[in-house]
């Protein structure tokens, strides 16, 4: 887990990149009827704006609230690092799925002119995204990014 604001920003950049990229491929593949080179290309084209939006939501809105909730109701600062990581990750995934599912619904509405269906697209995307985002975060992206982060930035090497 990051130890200061600078580490937290670096970690967030890495985690957000991983999650948004994989979830973009997943969502575009759902929309295009399956995983293909074309769906990965389409996801990559929409990635920069989605990434910037997700970073802003994560850094300025979700992170503080999720950590506040986790440390108020689920964990204590002295708890096991893995328990803290899992609880904070779960608390981050829920609001990020809700927000990014709305982003995706709006993206579809803009590209296909389906403004009257934004609400239903959003509501149907939330469970589809949640069932992929939570395991992705807990089993793949979280452990991978934590490992890469600590390999690149050993504890105490990034100054506050």
The poorly predicted ranges are none
Could you tell me the mean pLDDT? 95
**Count of DSSP helices?**
4
Instruction: From the alpha carbons, calculate the radius of gyration and give it in angstroms.
Output: 16 Å
Q: How would you describe the overall organization of this protein?
A:
This protein is mostly helical and 160 residues long. It has one domain (5-152). The chain is built from 4 helices and no strands. It has helices at 5-32, 37-74, 81-112, 118-152. Helix 1 crosses helix 2, helix 1 (5-32) crosses helix 4 (118-152) and helix 3 packs across helix 4 (118-152). Keywords: Membrane, Transmembrane, Transmembrane helix. This is DUF2798 domain-containing protein. InterPro entries: DUF2798.
What is the fold's blueprint, element by element?
Blueprint: H1 5-32, H2 37-74, H3 81-112, H4 118-152
Helix pairs in contact: 1-2, 1-4, 2-3, 3-4
Pfam families: DUF2798
InterPro entries: DUF2798
Keywords: Membrane, Transmembrane, Transmembrane helix
Outline of the structure:
By secondary structure, this protein is mainly α.
Q: How would you describe this structure in keywords?
A:
transmembrane, globular, 4 helices, transmembrane helix, DUF2798, DUF2798 domain-containing protein
């Amino acid at each position: 887990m990051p130890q200061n604001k600078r580490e937290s920003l670096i970690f967030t950049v890495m985690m957000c990149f991983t999650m948004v990229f994989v979830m973009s491929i997943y969502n575009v593949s759902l929309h295009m009827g399956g995983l293909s080179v074309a769906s990965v290309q389409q996801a990559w084209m929409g990635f920069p704006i989605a990434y910037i939006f997700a970073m802003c939501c994560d850094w300025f809105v979700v992170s503080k609230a999720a950590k506040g909730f986790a440390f108020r109701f689920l964990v204590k600062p002295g708890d096991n690092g893995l328990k803290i990581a899992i609880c904070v990750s779960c608390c981050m995934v829920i609001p990020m799925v809700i927000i990014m599912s709305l982003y995706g619904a709006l993206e579809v509405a803009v590209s296909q002119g389906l403004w009257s269906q934004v609400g239903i697209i959003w509501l149907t995307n939330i469970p589809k995204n949640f069932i992929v985002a939570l395991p992705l975060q807990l089993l793949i992206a979280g452990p991978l990014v934590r490992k890469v982060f600590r390999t690149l930035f050993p504890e105490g090497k990034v100054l506050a």
